[in-house]
Specification:
Elements lengths: L5 E6 L3 E9 L5 E10 L6 H16 L8 E6 L2 E2 L6 E4 L4 E4 L1 H8 L4 E6 H12 L8 E6 L3 E7 L2 E2 L31 H4 L1 H13 L12 H9 L3 H25 L3 E5 L1 H5 L1 H14 L2 H4 L3 E3 L7 H13 L2
Parallel strand pairs: 1-4, 4-8, 9-12, 12-13
Antiparallel strand pairs: 1-2, 2-3, 5-6, 6-7, 9-10, 10-11
Helix pairs in contact: 1-2, 3-11, 6-7, 7-9
């Protein structure tokens, strides 16, 4: 039997990435086409869905979209049916039936929506750096902070498809309001967007002078290397907070592997080093013993690949 056209999407607050997968002679799925489009000009559900359809059509290159299987990894909290997006702070969505919307535009294609970190961790588990780790915690620190779980070789999504919301773990002393609406979330001090907002405020108070650029985590990383006292203290604060949250999760789950990635950590090796160093200090010894901390290997392909694989297994 011929495999239907298989598409994976990774939907974020800046870009949508699409990939078409085909099965190789050895039976493994591989990406044969990639597309990317910006959604910054129109973050409405219809605007994002329209961009998705355009990228899918380009990826299919003339193949019939109505027979396609489409997996979508989306940065947001989903309803238990995984059709509705309850809260996607980086897109500004609340209670949006995105799965149904996209399916209506794809003329009958089979569509399945997943949390973006569930898609990423499944991609890395099946085809990337997390292969062989049947008990795995994945945490990505990027624009926000998200997590994904593999337990006993299976993707774990939780009772209502929202397991892994580690970015909304609470710590005392955090007064900033998170994009989820609550106060005290680790994402509100360690996520990339929160860091950018803080850096704007702190530069106005006299810190990190010498550049007129919009500041982000990479500026702090460079300032730490140059011996800047403020930047060093900030990285100590952020790494300590991250390592406390991660240590508690590791103590609870006792995973074999910790997949630690995301744009902030990937681009800031000193922050990553301090976070892992803090983990060794804070994690209960029996859970730390034998734990492997690994970096992702698939890059931007992990999300689309994982979403496509999940959708294919759901719609066989």
């Amino acid at each position: 039997m011929n495999q239907p056209p298989l598409i994976g999407l990774d939907v974020g607050g800046t870009n949508v990435r699409a990939a078409r997968l085909e099965r190789r002679e050895d039976g493994a799925l591989a990406i044969v086409a990639r597309r990317q489009g910006s959604v910054r000009a129109d973050l409405s559900p219809t605007g994002v869905a329209t961009t998705c359809v355009q990228l899918i059509d380009e990826s299919l290159n003339g193949l019939d979209v109505s027979s396609a299987v489409v997996g979508v990894g989306l940065a947001g909290q989903l309803a238990a049916d995984r059709d509705r997006v309850l809260n996607a702070p980086n897109l500004g969505w609340r209670d949006v039936a995105f799965g149904s919307l996209l399916k209506s535009l794809l003329r009958g294609a089979k569509v399945a929506v997943y949390n973006d970190l569930s898609s990423i961790v499944w991609g890395e588990y099946r085809a990337g750096a997390a292969q062989g780790f049947d008990d795995l915690l994945a945490v990505y620190v990027g624009t926000g902070i998200g997590g994904g779980l593999i337990l006993a070789g299976q993707l774990y999504e939780g009772f209502a498809a929202n397991a892994g919301e580690i970015g909304h773990s609470k710590l005392p002393g955090i007064s900033a309001r998170c994009g989820c609406g609550q106060i005290g979330c680790i994402e509100a001090i360690a996520g990339g967007l929160a860091l950018e907002r803080r850096l704007v405020e702190d530069r106005a108070r006299g810190f990190l002078q010498g550049t007129s650029e919009a500041l982000n985590a990479s500026h702090v990383e460079r300032a730490v290397a140059a011996g800047d006292v403020y930047a060093d203290a900030l990285w100590t604060e952020v790494s300590e907070s991250l390592s406390l949250v991660l240590a508690n999760a590791i103590g609870l789950l006792n995973p074999r592997g910790l997949l630690l990635g995301g744009g902030v950590l990937d681009g800031c090796p000193e922050l990553r080093r301090r976070t892992v160093e803090g983990l060794a200090k804070h994690t209960v010894a029996v859970a730390w013993r034998g734990l492997e901390v690994v970096a992702p290997s698939l890059g931007a392909d992990a999300g689309p690949m994982g979403a496509a694989m999940l959708a294919l297994s759901e719609h066989r």
